[in-house]
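At your convenience, could you comment on the folded chain following this short note?
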Amino acid sequence: MDWLIQYPIAHRGLHMGFTIPENSNLAFKKALEKNYAIELDIRITKDNQVVVFHDKNLLRICASKKKIANQAYSNLKKFNLYHTSEKIPLLSEVLELINGQVPVLIEVKNYGTVGLFEELLSKELENYKGHFAVCSFNVEVINWFKQNKPDIKRGLIFGDLKKFQIKFYKIVFLYRLFTSKPDFISLDYKLLDTFLVNFCRFFNKPLVSWTIDSKKKLRKARHIVDNIIFENIKIKKDRS
């Protein structure tokens, strides 16, 4: 997984405010122009279509309270991202656009029953020729890929803990690490000063950090982790 170190990863594409929406084809085109790897989020619709979208509902991006999981894709296509002409893309469309030009990091937004969503994703990726990996906060998603699609590289995302987990975050992390046996770890920037970094190094897990959105964070992260997931800053591919 050399690409995980070589290519800085554009968080939800190379988006910019309301003019270049996150997780849009336009944001992905901008990332391609800069030769950045691309991180994106996927969800499943009511009619089992895999779409590229971060939030569980449309409120923040499309000013609607409708939930992605409750909508058929034909209905989602009616919404624009912010006030642009960009639409919610299918994962298949985005993969066709990227076409192996840069690596893709796919975050699976599944916090319910695993199986169907992951199987649909696997089918989407069967004939894709470029470099890619999947990742998720949900340890059960990572377990599914470990058991059913072990050839697909998988990463455990860790951070944004609930209050009861914060006190025992080391135990929670180690439990998820040993349970899912990920190929790499994607760690919240706020946790870079904790012993979790040492755990990753001890177990020889490549370490990525998110979300790096300032030069200050960039300088710190690059002394600690193997790669970054960034937004809203200019960055060079050579890690300078």
